[in-house]
Design a protein that fits this description.
The structure is a single chain. By secondary structure, this protein is an alpha+beta fold. It contains 2 helices and 2 strands; from the N terminus they run αβαβ.
Length: 66
């Protein structure tokens, strides 16, 4: 299956990719996220609640909104 598609797998540890790789791939990655092709679990809170909610997000990415 992977031979028939343009599939790339990169790690997240030190040295798994270069800054140039990240800069090249970031626009496509962000587009896939905004198009809903990649799920990014997140929890949002108003910025006014930053002090009390900083550690209150579980496994999700924490996002504070103005």
């Amino acid at each position: 299956m992977f031979r028939s598609i343009d599939f790339h797998l990169i790690g997240s540890g030190f040295g798994s990719f270069t800054a140039a790789n990240l800069a090249d791939d970031m626009p496509a990655l962000l587009k896939m996220i905004t198009d809903g092709k990649i799920a990014v679990p997140l929890t949002t809170f108003p910025l006014s609640q930053i002090a009390e909610k900083w550690n209150d997000y579980g496994d999700n990415r924490l996002v504070f909104l103005p």
